[in-house]
Specification:
Bound molecules: 5-(aminomethyl)-2-methylpyrimidin-4-amine
CATH class: Mainly Alpha
Pathway: Cofactor biosynthesis; thiamine diphosphate biosynthesis
Strand content: under 5%
CATH superfamily: Heme oxygenase-like
Low-confidence stretches: none
Distance between the termini: 39 Å
Catalytic activity: 4-amino-5-aminomethyl-2-methylpyrimidine + H2O = 4-amino-5-hydroxymethyl-2-methylpyrimidine + NH4(+); thiamine + H2O = 5-(2-hydroxyethyl)-4-methylthiazole + 4-amino-5-hydroxymethyl-2-methylpyrimidine + H(+)
EC number: 3.5.99.2
Oligomer: single chain
Number of strands: 0
Family: Belongs to the TenA family.
Shape: globular
Keywords: Hydrolase, Thiamine biosynthesis
Structural class: mainly alpha
CATH topology: Heme Oxygenase, Chain A
Number of helices: 11
Helix content: over 70%
Radius of gyration: 17 Å
Order of helices and strands: HHHHHHHHHHH
């Protein structure tokens, strides 16, 4: 079993609660209230800004050009993700400046600053352990919704589902997992335990992020 697979397994039951959250079920069936999705989307725009800063640490901390190129590719994929958010906002007549001026929720602040802290104080393994629940979780959600056939016709969130089920997103996440595995191979037991703590904490923060969307909280 790969280190990534072990992290997922040992983060249970939180991982499944994250992937199968009521917010995700609502997106999948198209029944999520629009207000919840809008609240989430604005917060997620703020989240992705901080997340790209964390990904940039992957360039700063890289040991070679190949690792730099991979972090750079992950940032390009993230820029596409932001466009999906902005297209939704455009359709509702919400300007990017308004989204950027949205007050950050506690859930957003706690999660993003935690990831940045892991990246600033740790090495590449700690950084990617904090980044992976985000990337790999949404890839799993995208695959699950697509393969389950649960999405209703005229689902208002179909563009969101398609973005995370898309081949380029899925391939980008696979590359991040390979990079993570390669930087973990020399780690001792204590360091691996620390990665588990980071991964599980970030997974729980994903759950809190969905809940913030459902509850419309700041
Ligand atoms: C909170 C959160 N987690 C993950 C993703 C997928 N990059 C996202 N857009 N937002």
């Amino acid at each position: 079993m790969s280190i990534f697979q072990q992290l997922v397994q040992h983060s249970q039951p939180h991982w499944t609660q994250y992937i199968q959250h009521d917010f995700v079920q609502g997106i999948a069936t198209g029944t999520l209230p629009k207000a919840a999705f809008q609240h989430y989307l604005k917060q997620d725009y703020r989240y992705l800004f901080q997340y790209s800063r964390a990904l940039s640490l992957g360039i700063f901390k890289a040991d070679n050009f190949a690792q730099m190129a991979q972090a750079n590719e992950a940032i390009s994929i993230l820029l596409k993700e932001i466009n999906v958010h902005l297209q939704f906002c455009q359709q509702w007549g919400i300007a990017e400046s308004e989204v950027f001026a949205t007050e950050e929720s506690f859930a957003c602040i706690a999660y993003t600053r935690y990831v940045l802290d892991c990246g600033i104080n740790g090495g590449l393994a700690e950084l990617y352990a904090a980044l992976l629940p985000c990337a790999a979780g949404y890839a799993e959600i995208g695959r699950w919704i697509k393969n389950s056939g649960i999405s209703a016709e005229n689902n208002p969130y179909q563009a969101w589902i398609d973005a995370y089920a898309a081949d380029d997103f899925q391939a980008g996440v696979q590359k991040m997992i390979y990079l993570f595995e390669s930087v973990c191979c020399q780690l001792n037991e204590k360091q691996l335990q620390n990665l588990q703590t980071i991964f599980t904490t970030a997974t729980k923060m994903e759950i809190a992020f969905w809940q913030m969307g459902l509850d419309l909280t700041l």
